[in-house]
Amino acid sequence: MLLNFQNSTEIQEKELSCDFGYGEMKNFSSKCLVCGQFHNTEDHWKFMADMPSKPDSLIADLMKMGAYNQQALDIADSISKADLQKALFLKMAGQGNAKRERLVNELIKQAGGLNEAFAAAFGHKSDEFFNDAIRSGGFTRRRFLRNVAIGAALVTLASCNNSNQAPEATTEGQPVDTSSLEKTDLTVAFLPITCASPIIMSDPLGFYKKHGLNVELRKYASWSVVRDAAIAGELDAYHMLAPMPIAMSLGLGSTAFPVKLASIENNNGQGIAVANKHKGKVKSAADFKGFTIGIPYDYSNHNLILRYYLAAGGVNPDRDIKTIVLPPPDAIAKMATGQIDAFILPDNFTQRVVHDDIGFIHILTKDIWESHPCCAFTASNEWIDSYPNTFRALNKAIIDGANYANKPENRKEIAAAIAPRQYLNQPVEVLEAVMTGKFDDGQGNSLDIPDRIKFDPYPWKSFATWISTQLVRWDYLPEEKANYQQIGEQIFLTDLARELAEELGTEPPQELLKVEKLQFDELDPQNPQAYLKEQIDKFGF
Prior knowledge:
CATH superfamily of the domain at 185-267 and 372-512: Periplasmic binding protein-like II
Subcellular location: Cell inner membrane
Shape: globular
Protein name: Nitrate ABC transporter substrate-binding protein
Radius of gyration: 30 Å
Structural class: alpha/beta
CATH architecture of the domain at 185-267 and 372-512: 3-Layer(aba) Sandwich
Keywords: Cell inner membrane, Cell membrane, Ion transport, Membrane, Signal, Transport
InterPro entries: NrtA/CpmA_ABC-bd_dom (IPR044527)
Main location: membrane
Oligomer: single chain
Largest sheet: 5 strands, mixed
Helix content: 40-55%
Distance between the termini: 65 Å
CATH class of the domain at 185-267 and 372-512: Alpha Beta
């Protein structure tokens, strides 16, 4: 900050003795002939004599003192012209930093409002504002000059650290306070897919460092290996498929190991890709009969969404096709060598087959279930209980990163950040096609779908409800163990995610559940049993 401000209470106390029409006034005699307030006319002229004749002239002096620069004035002028609302300005000046936003908000309060601060400090309206203020009797010279200074400070805050830049690791030049963190050196697992973007990019773009953490990212090839490493205690936290915490906590496919889903890493961002030899022959789900299709894991939304899609098209996913679990990095080679006809995987792989002229994109999963969750940030119950403050900081850093990733203007930067060998090891042009939604589908179409992938970290508990109904439908979860409400309440940390998002200055939903709208039906999360019965009755399996 270039300027220091007195405590607002202290200022107000000093002003009580000199404000016209306020506080305890001396030599009061009559109504002023100039402004109509109750003070001597002579006192009014004494007050006016001490005020600058042209407030705009203060700007030149402040520029000489270094309070302004031309960039700040240009920004102030654009703000005045756009007539931005306070909330928008807070977002701009706060840079997504809760402490910074509190500072901006306090300055605005001291000025009596955002408009007052800018009107006093900038532009041709300052004379008009100044005269109105004097006539109203509500401003002293000190308060007017203070608002000029506050206006300068607000514009300085808004003009430094462009909001499209990644965050600094320090707040107001000071090191991050890590005294409350139980540990700061962490190991977090990830798979090399775009779904892991918030976990991966938070390393090169500084979100972990911003929140006081030193994170080693450990790359794995398959979900079963991540699961085993988590159970063995080799990791602090994990990138997992959204259904995995449910499956692991309930002991599906492995020994029961309680895991919490802390925040969603990505929405949409998946697709069904088909080998080029089938081009022109696959138009709908019914055309997949007899195919061998790759999936990343049994307990994945890829598997569940594929089954949902095929069943609605009259294809029994347990009889009419063959599914094989394969590590995502192996998918390209297996399709190129004819070992699989199709796969449903993260979009960097669906786009890669187009890039390498191996296959084409049949459908994006967003067209099957708009804004569906894919991957999530997770940690074990035991680790969370042992390191509650560290867990909170880590989850907050990843939510911070997800919010940054959700802005379209940041997508190319993120694509470049996660492309290197130690992360995704993918061509930047492939990742940009996924991130920006501007891509070729391998069938001669150039598409522009901005929400091809999204990064909304809010873990709706209705996500858990839909996942659980499908685990029951396809015999992964015994119906007697499907306590739908309890699964969402115990495994999805929705309340904490909301709290952390609010601390970061965003406005997450307040509800826990919502109706999930899919291509062929809708899930009312209050009545999952009826939804499941309707699916089976309608499609036969």
